[in-house]
Write a structure and sequence with these properties.
single chain, mainly alpha, Trp Operon Repressor, Chain A, 2 domains, about 70% helix, TrpR YerC/YecD, DNA-binding transcription factor activity, Trp_repressor/repl_initiator, TrpR-like_sf
Length: about 100
């Protein structure tokens, strides 16, 4: 993980997220903490990652999610060269490739 984002404030945010117990609590917290567009952008990136792992084409992904090719490329770069956060979550969700 990049040391640039490792701050006490980010630790507090992540501790808050880890305290959430169910989907309704997540909806309530994230609706308070994020704008609707921020939350939709994050969820779009996650869907792009799922589709990339399923070997979908950029065109298919763009049509289904509305994501730009630049966003798809950034997510793909994270999948290939990132900190393996997506892989960890997909494994825990039972979505391993």
């Amino acid at each position: 993980m990049s040391k640039k984002i490792r701050t006490e404030e980010v630790d507090h945010l992540f501790d808050a997220i880890l305290s959430l117990e169910n989907r309704d609590e997540c909806y309530n917290f994230f609706e308070d903490v994020c704008t609707i567009n921020e939350l939709l952008s994050i969820s779009q990136r996650f869907e792009v990652a799922r589709m990339l792992r399923a070997q979908k084409t950029y065109l298919d992904i763009a049509e289904k999610t509305g994501a730009s090719t630049a966003t798809i490329s950034r997510v793909n770069r994270s999948l290939n060269y990132g900190c393996d956060g997506y892989d960890l979550v997909f494994k825990r969700l039972g979505e391993e490739n």
